[in-house]
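User: Quick sanity check before I run a bigger batch. Here is a single chain. Can you write out its predicted 3D structure?
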Amino acid sequence: MTFVVTEACIKCKLTDCVEVCPVDCFHEGPNFLVIDPDECIDCTLCEPECPVEAIYSEDEIPAGQEHFLKLNAELSQDWPVITEMKDAPEDADEWREVKDKLQYLEK
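Assistant: Done. Predicted structure follows.
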């Protein structure tokens, strides 16, 4: 099993989750993070650390966001690994409550 970063992360890209991950499974894109399912060890440490509740176990992905499992797997192959917490984007707070953000995902 793996954990999956879902839509709530888009344009927020808070990296609290990266700091607690014991393996190098997080990858960073321009405005989104993903988890490499082949590297994730299902430790559960990242899920409670996400301030926008964007991380779910693959068995608990919210309805309508199942496609993020495939998206995480695909993008983790192209994006670089991130292992340290970074400053949040300046406008992250403005995006926290926004829904339907997939259209804003930058690949």
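The chain has a mean pLDDT of 97.

User: Great, the batch can go ahead then.
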